[in-house]
Specification:
Structural class: alpha/beta
């Protein structure tokens, strides 16, 4: 659930009409934008199978190109004209696109792709005024948005997935939304019942996710962080050394440790309010709030503060920083191992 006034990047808003003659695809999330364009092309070809797709790039644009592409074909087939990169469009492209918006070409569906920024704002306003179907593609960045995205992928396919499986997927693959989407598709395909319907397939659970991506979860450092925060220092060190021996850089591992401790600090300040309310206020998913509350057991405020300071020092060290003038940068591997040991010691601290 998102804070008031903030729309989730993966919210289930009513989709724009893909059969409209004019489309505005806005926002920085390219996966959502590509899907929007695909829906437009599919709708156009459902109405006229011989429809051609022409993509015009903003870079290297020559004045008059849009008008030439929008000219009716001698063979009568329609055209989906996709204009990409409008956030960096030269004046010639903006002017030609606006002319097409104000005087549409017959048998041409115009799709305007604009990622962000003020460049071309007049064109976007003109498209909206002309009744363009607007496809919003906000960036999917927070874990809450990624959680909602995964649920949406499964719901759209009429499949079910358990909350802990969603959490495992987001932890393992949440750095890349396309990879996350591909993982959802793969899991659904591989667990489909032969000759059955989606409703006949079993729910995807955490055991299935671990079978496919368990190694990725370890490599990204989340299991290291979970073990360290739980006070299982020996296990955390073993997982850490395995990840490092597999070629994982210490920097993202320290980042995950920091993220886990920050989550504890944020949730500890929320008090005993309901998880959904805390999640809304903290821009987290409810399962993340519940997980942090479980992890907070055994931590004192002073211990948590010391652990956060230890990870901040490790972050400086693994990035080549010098804790004091005149000292050499230390070994990044030693720095992250030291941080894990210090987290364990901090957790044992009592008020």
């Amino acid at each position: 659930m998102s804070p008031p006034g903030r729309r989730s990047a993966a919210s289930a808003a009513a989709p724009a009409d893909p059969s409209a003659p004019l489309h505005l695809v806005t926002g920085p999330e390219d996966l959502l934008a590509d899907r929007a364009v695909d829906r437009v092309v599919t709708a156009a070809r459902a109405a006229a199978p011989d429809t051609q797709v022409v993509t015009v790039e903003a870079s290297g644009y020559t004045a008059g190109d849009l008008a030439a592409h929008a000219t009716p074909s001698l063979f009568g087939e329609g055209t989906v004209l996709v204009v990409v990169g409008l956030e960096e469009a030269p004046d010639e492209l903006v002017e030609d696109a606006r002319a097409l918006v104000e005087s549409p070409a017959p048998d041409t569906v115009l799709v305007l792709r604009h990622r962000s920024g003020q460049r071309g704002k007049g064109l976007l306003d003109a498209a909206r005024k002309a009744g363009a179907a607007v496809h919003d593609c906000p960036k999917i960045t927070s874990d809450a948005d990624k959680t909602t995205f995964v649920h949406s992928e499964f719901r759209t396919a009429h499949r079910s997935i358990t909350p802990d499986a969603v959490a495992a997927l987001v932890e393992a693959l949440g750095q890349d939304v396309r990879e996350l989407a591909n993982a959802c598709a793969q899991l659904m395909a591989d667990t489909m019942v032969p000759d059955g319907t989606p409703q006949d397939a079993p729910a995807v659970d955490v055991t299935i996710v671990d079978r496919y991506y368990g190694g990725r979860v370890e490599a990204t450092g989340f299991k290291v962080a979970d073990a360290a925060i739980a006070g299982q220092t020996d296990e955390a060190l073993g997982l850490l050394r395995h990840a490092l021996s597999s070629g994982v850089d210490p920097v993202p591992i320290v980042a995950v440790l920091a993220m886990g401790l920050r989550s504890l600090a944020k949730v500890s300040s929320a008090g005993s309010v309901r998880s959904v309310d805390a999640a809304r206020d903290l821009a987290m998913a409810p399962w993340q709030v519940d997980k942090a509350r479980r992890q907070l057991r055994g931590w004192s405020p002073d211990g948590l503060a010391l652990a956060i300071e230890a990870v901040a020092a490790a972050d400086l060290a693994v990035k080549g920083g010098l804790p004091r003038p005149g000292r050499r940068a230390g070994d990044p591997v030693f720095a992250v191992e030291k941080a894990v040991l210090q987290i364990g010691a901090a957790r044992r601290l009592r008020d």
